[in-house]
Amino acid sequence: MKTWLAAVATALTVSLASPVLAQDGGGWSLAIHGGAGVIERGSLTPEQDAAYRAALDSALQVGAEVLDNGGSALDAVEAVIQVLEDDPLFNAGRGAVFTADGRIEHDAAIMDGTTLDAGAVAGLTRTRHPISAARAVMEDSPHVFLIGQGAETFARSQGLEEVEPAYFFTERRWRGLVRQLERDGLPVPARPEGAPPEGAMAAVAPPLDERKFGTVGVVALDREGRLAAGTSTGGMSGKRWGRVGDVPVIGAGTYASNADGCAVSATGSGEYFIRATVARDICHRTASGADVQTAGEAEIADVGAIGGDGGVIVMGIDGSVGFAMNTSGMYRGRVGEGEDRRVAIYADEED
Question: Catalytic residue positions?
Answer without folding.
Answer: 215
